[in-house]
Amino acid sequence: MQSLIVLMAQDAPSFCYYPSPAAGGAEMSPDMFERVADWARRDGLMLHLVCGSRGLPEFAQKHLADERRYACYLPAEAPASTPNDIPVVRADGPKDIDLIPANRHTIGILRVPPTSLNALPEVWETLASKVYRVVTVLLDLDRYEADQLERYDRILAQMRNRLGSWYQAGRELEVSCLSDRMALQAPCHCQAGLDHLTIDPAGGLHICPGFAATGADPVGRLGSPVAIPNAYLLRLEHAPICAVCDAFHCRRCVYVNLRSTLEINTPPWQACRASHREREQARLLLSEMQSQGVLMDLQPIPGISYEDPLELLLNPQRPRLYEAPYYPEDTGPEPPPPLSRSRIREPAVPGRSPDDIPSEKENHQNPARRPEYRPDAPPLKEPFEMASNAVGRVSPQERDTIKNLHLRKAGLAELFTTLTKLDAASLESNPLYDKLINDMGAVSVAFQAWWDQTAEQYGWPNEPGKKWRIDFDTCEIFLE
Predict the structure, then answer these.
(1) How far apart are CA 345 and CA 2, in angstroms?
(2) Would you list the domain boundaries of the chain?
(3) Which terminal residue of the chain, N or C, has fewer Cβ atoms less than 10 Å from its own Cβ?
(4) Where does 11-136 have alpha helices with state H?
(5) Is 90:114 a contact under the CB 8 Å cutoff?
(6) Which ranges of the chain have pLDDT less than 70?
(7) CA 480: distance to chain centroid?
(8) In CATH, what is the architecture of 3-261?
């Protein structure tokens, strides 16, 4: 656990994808807030305080006078309370931006309803004149039609051109839907229920503010254990579509997932396709900038041949990257040095303050943040002796083969579980069912064949009742 999201009032307006609750309701008491603050201080947790139009209560301001690890989300009309305020505005209320003083806030959140999509470029540029970083939130994204996503793509292209001209002029600013993916080499998801929990004014604990605002039952109480049903589904390895995706800037909102697909680990197609349109525009922007010698400290974003990661699960033979002549190996700028945080920084997320952004050394030491293995990369050196109980070790290329098969097998199993919850008539009429059955059979055969062939190649021992296991970090094989 890294942070707590604290709803200071039951009707505190939303700062994220969930709808703002109706007016009225309880406010958090001073005693309850003191208990929350004590928990955060004891466990080193950051506080994200969500406030209404009255702003942060005075008792909370006094309690936080000497604190640094907190942020306060509040509407533009709320009175300024702390140096860590983050104003939240809607694209259909551009006059609210006039209430935000220039150069006071680092981050501003722009919530965009579908009816205001066309206003996004203008409103974003106005807000960008007041803050360094604009976080865009597309409301009701899971209810978009295909033509709305096409319109969003054209709007992103407009924003890309404008942002590119600012970068060329040396202006430093960020907009989450474009600049975040340029800086990321690993997922930067919300991690609700894993890295942070939400506390309502009465002390109830929730997976995220969306669950609290829509009346879901708490998963615990302040001071008591947390019990999230099927909590393992919150993890990336149990989200098969997201696990194969490199739209690292996507928030992977579990609230939107559950609302739209009834599965907390399965995103709606609109979220995937919107994220990949953002990814593509970010790729084009970075390519344009690096061709002019700007942002050369960032890793190029590879072109991909799909716009929905579900396509990779349903068609494993599909190439992931564009092939020559689109990206020939003998053209393009020299590879940039390792990713740094200058100019474009890793986006802030609930659970991390700017001081917590990992260094390059920390990124390298964290396996989850290492660059993806490339087939043309030199073999990994063996920095340590093989474990005494290991029966062998495979090459990184062989490790990647079985790892991909493992992810595909797990992903297909998760999708199969989802489909089997349908009634018999719906199941028989679903075109994915037969394809999943065939794909699961093919992947299972390939999975077992890898173990059989590799064991024979290396001469691993085998014993009845035991199975081989691979450590993906070290490439070592164990018989257990």
Answers:
(1) 20
(2) 3-261, 390-479
(3) C
(4) 30-43, 58-63, 120-128
(5) no
(6) 81, 317-319, 321-387, 414, 416-438
(7) 35
(8) Alpha-Beta Horseshoe (3.80)
